[in-house]
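2024-03-11 09:14:02 DEBUG pipeline.ingest accepted 1 chain
2024-03-11 09:14:02 DEBUG pipeline.ingest length=131
2024-03-11 09:14:03 DEBUG pipeline.predict start
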Amino acid sequence: MLATDYPLLEIFWTILIFFGFVVWIWILFTVFADIFRRSDIGGWGKALWIVFVVILPWLGVLVYLIAEHEGMNERTVKRQQDVQAEFDQYVKSAAGKGDPTDQIAKASELLAKRAISQAEFEEMKRKALAA
């Protein structure tokens, strides 16, 4: 009974509209996020872009994407590089791969406390200097 009231092409059209709406929301959030993350314009510039996008959504988003596509790409790449650098720094600190002088100092403290032997100290010193 329901199949006759809602034919296949109507289902296809509904799915197409739904996914188009999802894509529109995604683009809108991307534009808003880029506007708020920008550091090259002040508060008034951001407010003007927001007002333009809110008042004339289709035109505002289209104009923003055309006018700022290079900047959006550069800011996205820079943000990803910054995140990668922070992650790399975290991994190095978590793995104990820091400054060799710090590693040698820690090893000498352990040697002074007799927590490690002279051979272990020499091995830790060799590894720190090799890194």
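2024-03-11 09:14:41 DEBUG pipeline.report The chain has two domains: 2-95, 97-131.
2024-03-11 09:14:41 DEBUG pipeline.predict end
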